[in-house]
Amino acid sequence: MSQSQCCFFTCRLYEYHFIKENKSWSEAQKYCREKYTDLAKVFDMTDMSRLRNSAQNQGEAWIGLNNNTGGNRTWRWSLPGVEYIHNDSSWNLNGRTGKELPGNCGRKRYDNGDKKLVDVSCDSTMWFFCYDDKKTLNLITLFMNWTQAQSYCRSIHTDLASGLDQVDGEEMKALITTTFSAWVGLFRDSWRWSDGSDFSFRYWDMQLFNDEQNKLILIKENKTWEEALDYCRIFHRGLVSITNPYQQRWAEVRAKNASSPFVWLSLRYSCTLDLWFWVNDKLVCYEKWSREGKTEDCGRAVGMQSGGQYEWVSQRDNEKYNFVCFK
């Protein structure tokens, strides 16, 4: 039987409880709904501090944020409590300049023509506007990507400028003395809170996110699971294990270029122990099985789909597929 080795939080009227039991995310959600209210939700940095304090350095834990939405992305403002209301007149989908590509973060070009919002890649770098608790706006003339700009604003001020009242208001216009593009607090994602709350607050470990992006490499050679395991150990750092959504995402990015229907992961079934395990001893804290893909039998390892939903399917380990290595 598969087990996830993660603890989790519950939240009852914003009273956080650290539950030190080993459960998958779905099991943790069910537990919380039966005994409390739901898995923990986080509204702002104050909640984030209380959540950390309740954990008391006891390790990783599930919270209510999940990506079980089929990739359906929703626009949000970074500043907690500011509701995003779509207005076609606020957007200019043809307003990109230079090498800008469509993306999931919002920037605005400021000049006498008062250009509209444009969705561009979050990796672009530009100036940005911060909002502080004195209800003032600050133009930061440093070149940062959207996530760096958000972190800067949260550490030095309050958050990125959010809401049309801030982005288009008179105070903003007073700061504009030249033509430039700048980040505002607009982003879209497919994450949702377990209890249905529409909170826009996110506090990702971006160092982990960025590290995982660069660590994975697709090997477009068809090998058995053991051959793939040996190849990765000899030429790289090992066959990939996936223990969080970030690693899953970047494995998907690599897998989409595979020449086989599946790519091998390092998850294998042990008949002796009657459980699934990562060969590098990583804890099984994250899973993405297809509905009928989890066959627990001797000689089985996991192949991730190289398209579609990129779900995990147990395969006979003598099948030959492409595979993903840690660099």
UniProtKB/TrEMBL annotation:
Cross-referenced SMART domains: CLECT
Stretches assigned to the C-type lectin domain: 16-131, 130-204, 220-326
Coiled coil regions in record: none
Superkingdom: Eukaryota
Record's protein name: C-type lectin domain-containing protein
